[in-house]
Design brief:
This protein is α/β, with parallel strands linked by helices. The protein is built from 20 helices and 23 strands.
């Protein structure tokens, strides 16, 4: 341990704060703070995530060689003050609210880290988009790749492209605030009645229900150039802090007021969603084609919040010369912690690369002993099964149209459950789409579900050229036999599962395939609307008893809702309409 170099990566104070620990260039642990605090998109200092990362490796803060932070607070503060000056006095109320937070915490990150952690070592700062670039390229399988990062805003940059070679990244060009594709999409997210910085995937899911009939109106709000760069209309987007100003202007442009979160979704909203998605697709494709032209390399790494838009990602595959695309599962701000750690390891310390991310299982895990202690304390009935019996039993339960909560191994890194903290159901039964949406997730009925498929059988069910382990691409569906995971446009947000990366979940898909001829399952995150994905056995149990899930599988323990319902009767939770 004396000769080991541990680097702690941190992101926080915007949204989705997180911590990452690497050892001699190898990823050891990664987790988002929300999973521990149970506050969705928690932006606070990731004390719990840091505590987990250190405890998982069995070290303390004195063993950490250095800390990497995912952006440069002073540079970001410069941008914020300058933008407030330009929009004064319109945004003075926001300025008054923002300054105390910045002057108390956000400007003094180095002191905050040292104080919170009792840490005495060096702290390195990476620019925001460099952190995004590092989070993708340095853990990718590519020795060389083009890099494209797109989000709301970092310090000044909102978009960047660069080139990664071996252990070095060069940022070649940036688009700066206030021109931001991420913010542009978020304004429409807000106007459509969803929460910005978290509800964008709802707009993406709503888009296939509409037609892009408002595309021309949207294009008048943003000037798009042949290289994919763009400028937002300053007459409309004068203020970037006061949503009410944009709301009034959008009402004049589109002839409708902003939708309230609990208002009915009408065809207008679906068509507007389709329109903003179409414009976004076109811009992303133009950017990617320009990046290819400038770099002449056929592998691409994507990062930033916009890289979570799996529809736009798939358009890059279809409409550019890139043959390979890599996106690590926490492409948004949480991933900045990963990028900060690898930026220090490679760009600062100049170490050679020795790690490729091949799965997303980097969070906490719980042994059967720990699970049993929890269940015995709860005094609930359960059945323990060995692995072989467990897989056969669960496959049979799903085949009988039961919905299963599946809690296994290490919690996933990123916003998607990928077979460790999942809710599973039969994709052949179209009724499961509505049942899981309305009675288990308590969310909007239009929201699509992702299919998990054995990697060996992907070509039989989906039109997709290579593995998609993190649900970051959509694929055409080739069969009518899996309607519960087929969206209205005949696509699905695909997850391929390999035996080498997750033998247990792969084994469950294999058992279900033997039983039904369909090695595909509905896989959605083990949570309800407004809550983060479950982290602990207690989180899973609490979600189980307040939903319509039929069976809960905690490690090798099987819990039957019918058996425990007398002691823990189902009571539907109250959920505010404006939560995610």
């Amino acid at each position: 341990m004396v000769n080991d170099i541990y680097i702690l990566g941190i992101s926080c104070y915007y949204h989705d704060s997180a911590a990452v620990l690497i050892k001699n260039g190898q990823l050891i642990a990664a987790a988002q703070e929300e999973r521990f605090t149970r506050k969705k998109h928690d932006e606070s200092f990731p004390a719990n995530a840091i505590k987990f990362c250190l405890a998982y490796e069995g070290i303390n803060i004195k063993d950490v060689s250095c800390v990497g932070f995912y952006d440069k607070p002073l540079l970001k503060f410069e941008r914020i003050v300058e933008s407030f000056i330009k929009s004064w006095p319109q945004d003075y109320k926001m300025f008054i609210r923002a300054m105390p937070i910045w002057l108390k915490d956000k400007l003094w990150i180095k002191n905050k880290i040292k104080k919170e952690l009792n840490y005495k070592g060096p702290v390195y700062f990476s620019e925001h988009h460099m952190s995004h670039a590092a989070s993708a390229f340095f853990v990718s399988p590519f020795k060389g790749a083009a890099i494209l990062t797109v989000d709301g805003v970092g310090e000044w940059a909102t978009t960047a492209f660069g080139l990664g070679r071996d252990n070095k990244i060069d940022i070649i060009r940036e688009i700066n605030y206030p021109d931001s594709l991420g913010l542009f999409y978020s304004f429409f997210t807000y106007y459509l009645g969803f929460k910005p910085n978290s509800g964008e995937y709802k707009v993406m899911g709503l888009a296939p229900y509409g037609e892009p009939i408002y595309e021309d109106k949207i294009r008048r709000l943003i000037s798009i150039f042949p290289d994919g760069s763009f400028k937002l209309d300053r007459a409309i987007f004068k203020s970037f802090y006061e949503m009410g100003d944009i709301e009034a202007k959008f009402k004049n442009i589109f002839g409708r007021p902003k939708r309230a979160p609990d208002d009915k979704l009408e065809q207008f909203h679906k068509d507007l969603a389709a329109s903003i998605q179409k414009v976004t697709n076109d811009i992303i494709v133009m950017m990617a084609n320009y990046v290819y032209k400038e770099t002449n390399i056929d592998s691409l790494c994507l990062a930033g919040g916009v890289a979570l838009n799996c529809v736009a990602n798939s358009q890059i595959l279809k409409n550019t010369p890139f043959k390979n695309i890599f996106i690590q599962p926490a492409a948004g701000d949480a991933g900045g912690a990963l990028g900060a750690a690898y930026y220090v390891w490679h760009q600062v310390f100049k170490n050679e690369r020795n790690f490729v991310m091949e799965h997303a299982s980097w969070g906490p895990k719980f042994s059967n002993k720990e699970i049993k202690e929890f269940l015995d304390k709860k005094k609930v009935e359960y059945e323990f099964m060995d692995h072989g019996q467990l897989l056969k039993t669960v496959a049979a339960l799903i085949n009988k149209q039961n919905v299963v909560g599946w809690f296994q191994g290490r919690m996933e890194w990123g916003p998607r459950a990928l077979g460790n903290r999942s809710i599973l159901a039969d994709p052949r039964n179209k009724g499961n789409w509505q049942r899981v949406n309305l009675k288990i997730k308590f969310r909007e009925s239009f929201r699509p579900f992702a299919p998990s498929v054995m990697e060996e059988y992907v070509s039989e069910f989906f039109d997709f050229p290579f593995p998609s382990p993190y649900m970051l691409f959509v694929a055409g569906v080739k069969t009518d036999n899996i309607p519960a995971v087929t969206h209205v446009d005949k696509t699905a947000r695909l997850q391929t599962v390999s035996n080498r990366s997750d033998s247990l979940y792969h084994g469950l898909l294999e058992e279900f395939g033997h039983l039904t001829g369909c090695p595909v399952l509905i896989n959605t995150s083990f949570n309800i609307r407004g809550e983060p994905i479950v982290c602990t056995p207690e989180d899973a149990f609490n979600t189980f008893i307040k939903t319509d899930i039929d069976y809960l599988i905690l490690g090798n323990f099987v819990l039957d809702k019918k058996v425990i319902s007398q002691k823990y009767p189902f009571v539907k939770p109250e959920i505010s309409p404006d939560v995610d």
